[in-house]
């Protein structure tokens, strides 16, 4: 049975939170350990559900994952890597999308992989066609089986010339994790260049890989026969940092985010300043607060890095409901990432969704009937409501809206938040939120 979170809103969030390793890097670094001939050590690992899922998946494949009880550092030993049965894999895959990244490393290590049908947040179709196309280009044979796909490389994996139709983060990682030990040279055009991709490249380089990132989204990888282990401190989670920054703005609070890095948040900080948020950067983190007066509206487009990231959009939309005037947010990465606005409207926000591209650049979704542009008019007073958490970032935005709203809100599905926000309840109470978690019982 799940839990019910009761939120009494109207109080500013004030205090300090610590952000640790990025949810969108750590599980992939764990997968990279499969490529090594020696054990690896991963530091700055957050206690989130996605780490548990990948720990389970690595374990059923024979990788020994040990956690240092004091530091939380993970030691990953792939010496006894083996095949796993589809039921073992199913039992651990949960609703994560990470299993697809096991393909290359498992083919290099044991010649085959079974990948269960994927989950992840319901924010669009989230196909895996790019992944399968690049894997086939390396020489992999993909076969649909009940409950997932089987993938093997009977003739080995060979480097290839590849071009992605869109700079997909996951497909770029797929190429990196496969090409580093494929025979010969791989050239990937149209690659994603998110900070988490660079951190994965640094990990692979520590293992012995040869990877060059060019200025035009081209990545060149020279395959090597063997890789060793790595010792690496994961980059902090910039999406969690942006989430707490938005929480400070929305609740008219003041939050110091220890671990937030300016370099990885440049586009976010520009937008934050433009709508009326204040921030101060020091060597250990960034302090975020509401600058006083009314927030200012703006026109915003989500994009791949170095643009304004799609995962920053949802909490910021809550802040825009409090800006004076009309804001436009055009989502160009996922076709269906505005479902969360329903609950905000029930809480008093004025948000209309449109099928047209309302930003300055037409995107892939313009002619395809997706509600992917939002017009937000403000300011509107928010009041408490009951809601079910739909996905990670949308859920966070509902929670901060409830914390800013007058009255009481009740949220179910709060477990989803644990996929990407470490010690979420402790952090909320530490910031002074009036929240109570109770069991829904049977
Ligand atoms: N796409 C395809 N075919 C593919 C792969 C992707 O059409 O085979 C499309 C997607 O449907 C989407 C776009 O390409 O429209 C971009 O998807 P991408 O592959 O970049 O996303 P991802 O790797 O599945 C990661 C993060 C997301 C984050 C995106 C964009 C992880 C585990 N997830 O997803 O994070 O939004 O990159 O930066 O790294 C989150 O943290 O809440 C989250 C959803």
Molecular structure report:
- It contains 13 helices and 23 strands.
- By secondary structure, the protein is of the alpha+beta class.
- Strands 21-22-1-23 form a four-stranded mixed beta sheet, with helices on one face. It has a four-stranded mixed beta sheet with strand order 2-14-16-15. It has a four-stranded mixed beta sheet with strand order 4-5-3-13, with helices on one face.
- The longest helix has 13 residues, at 195-207.
- Bound molecules: uridine-diphosphate-2(N-acetylglucosaminyl) butyric acid.
- Residues 23-24, 97, 121, 124-131, 166, 168-171, 192, 194, 239, 310-311, 333-334, 392-393, 420 line the site of uridine-diphosphate-2(N-acetylglucosaminyl) butyric acid.
Question: Topology of this structure?
Answer:
Blueprint (H helix, E strand, L loop, with lengths): L2 E6 L5 E5 L7 H7 L7 E4 L5 H12 L3 E4 L6 E4 L8 H8 L9 H8 L1 E5 L12 H9 L3 E5 L2 E5 L8 E3 L5 H11 L5 E5 L5 H13 L2 E4 L5 E4 L8 E3 L4 H13 L3 E5 L7 H10 L1 E5 L3 E6 L8 E3 L8 H11 L4 E6 L10 H6 L3 E5 L18 E6 L7 E3 L3 H13 L3 E5 L11 H7 L3 E6 L3
Parallel strand pairs: 2-14, 3-13, 9-10, 17-18, 21-22
Antiparallel strand pairs: 1-22, 1-23, 3-5, 4-5, 6-8, 7-8, 10-12, 11-12, 14-16, 15-16, 18-20, 19-20
The site of uridine-diphosphate-2(N-acetylglucosaminyl) butyric acid has 27 residues, from helix 5, helix 6, helix 10 and helix 12.
Catalytic activity: phosphoenolpyruvate + UDP-N-acetyl-alpha-D-glucosamine = UDP-N-acetyl-3-O-(1-carboxyvinyl)-alpha-D-glucosamine + phosphate
EC number: 2.5.1.7
Main location: cytoplasm
């Amino acid at each position: 049975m799940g839990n019910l979170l009761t939120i009494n809103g109207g109080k500013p969030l004030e205090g300090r939170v610590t952000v640790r390793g990025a949810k969108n890097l750590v599980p992939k670094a764990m997968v990279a350990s499969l490529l090594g001939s020696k054990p690896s050590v991963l530091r700055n690992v957050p206690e989130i559900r996605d780490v548990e899922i990948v720990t389970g998946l690595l374990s059923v494949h024979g990788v020994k994952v040990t956690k240092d009880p004091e530091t939380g550092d993970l030691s990953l030993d792939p010496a006894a890597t083996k095949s796993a049965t589809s039921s073992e894999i199913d039992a651990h895959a949960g609703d994560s999308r990470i299993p697809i990244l096991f393909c290359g490393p498992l083919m290099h290590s044991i010649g085959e992989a079974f990948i269960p049908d994927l989950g992840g947040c319901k924010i669009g179709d989230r196909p895996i066609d790019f992944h399968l196309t690049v894997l086939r280009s390396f020489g992999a044979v993909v076969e649909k089986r009940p409950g997932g796909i089987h993938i093997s490389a009977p003739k080995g994996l060979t480097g290839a010339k590849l071009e992605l139709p869109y700079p997909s983060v996951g497909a770029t990682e797929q190429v990196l994790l496969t090409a580093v030990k494929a025979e010969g040279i791989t050239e990937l055009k149209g690659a994603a260049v998110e900070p988490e991709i660079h951190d994965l490249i640094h990990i692979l380089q520590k293992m012995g890989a040869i990877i060059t990132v060019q200025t035009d989204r081209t990545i060149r990888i020279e395959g090597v026969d063997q890789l060793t282990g790595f010792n690496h401190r994961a980059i902090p989670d910039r999406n969690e940092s942006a989430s707490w920054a938005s929480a400070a703005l929305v609740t008219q609070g003041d939050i110091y985010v220890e671990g937030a890095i300016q370099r990885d948040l440049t586009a976010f900080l520009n937008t934050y300043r433009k709508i009326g948020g204040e921030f101060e950067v020091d060597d250990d983190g960034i302090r975020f607060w509401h600058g006083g007066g009314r927030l200012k509206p703006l026109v915003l487009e989500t994009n791949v890095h170095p643009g304004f990231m799609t995962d920053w959009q949802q909490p910021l939309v809550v802040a825009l409901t409090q800006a004076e005037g009309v804001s436009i947010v055009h989502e160009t990465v996922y076709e269906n990432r505005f479902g969360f606005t329903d609950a905000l409207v029930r809480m008093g926000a004025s948000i209309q969704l449109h099928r047209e591209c309302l930003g300055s650049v037409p995107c892939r979704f313009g002619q395809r009937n997706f509600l992917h542009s939002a017009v937000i008019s403000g300011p509107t007073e928010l009041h408490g409501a009951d809601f079910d958490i739909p996905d990670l970032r949308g859920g966070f935005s509902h929670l901060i809206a409830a914390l800013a709203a007058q009255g009481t809100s009740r949220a179910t599905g709060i477990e989803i938040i644990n996929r990407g926000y470490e010690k979420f309840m402790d952090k909320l109470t530490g910031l002074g939120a009036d929240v109570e978690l109770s069991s829904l019982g049977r």
